[in-house]
Design goal:
Length: about 270
Amino acid sequence: MTRLAGVIGDPIAHSRSPRLHGHWLRRYGIDGHYVPLHVRAEDLEATLALLPRLGFAGINVTIPHKEAVFALADEVTDRARAVGAANTLTFRDGRIHADNTDGYGFLANLRQEAPGRDARAPALVLGAGGAARGVIAALLDEGAERVTLTNRSAGRAEALAELFGPRVVTHPWERAAEALPGHALVVNTTSLGMAGNPPLELDLTGLDPTATVTDIVYTPLETPLLAAARARGNPVVDGLGMLLHQAVPGFRAWFGAEPQVDDALRAAVMA
């Protein structure tokens, strides 16, 4: 039988997931389709009930439904529970299984693009939204001795620090540059630097020249933050790889193949 999976969101036309999964389906000769579905909040629960009956093996979930599907799932993984949101659903045995693969994708991207990085070294995370939750959880699970969190709304940063425990500390947003020394990894999880948004204003003078700088934004591939870091010789990792790697567990579960993240995939998604 033709295997079905897809991605739901509101809006959904911007999603690159159909290109991503479509490339893998063609590459591995799988009889399957991956379709984008525009689903409004008021239709979400009914849609989740209907899709398995239509033959869907699972779906990816994007804005604004990640927290809502987490609440509707029958079973959730530990990493989804740590974030309080899900981006990958698998329909199996009449039940909805929810996972959050953002942290998995973030770490897999770092391991591929910055293989010499010390996973235990302190990291500085900019932003305290849903993406930051996944990144922080992944860094702590990997063994980071400390994660410093800075956010424009100090209250949100403090709430996350309380949620994750003593290895997460906060720092004032207006003095973010002062937090750079002593950190081996800098992660921007905000929308600053994304096309159509203001750049992230951060003076990198105090950053160790060997520290890795990464941005979860991938439009553009090289944000002003990454350009500034590259100009001073720091290793940089763009955000596209996180998108590609986070898709691996879902594709494996729905289509039964172990897909590869490589240059051909990057080119197909960015075409």
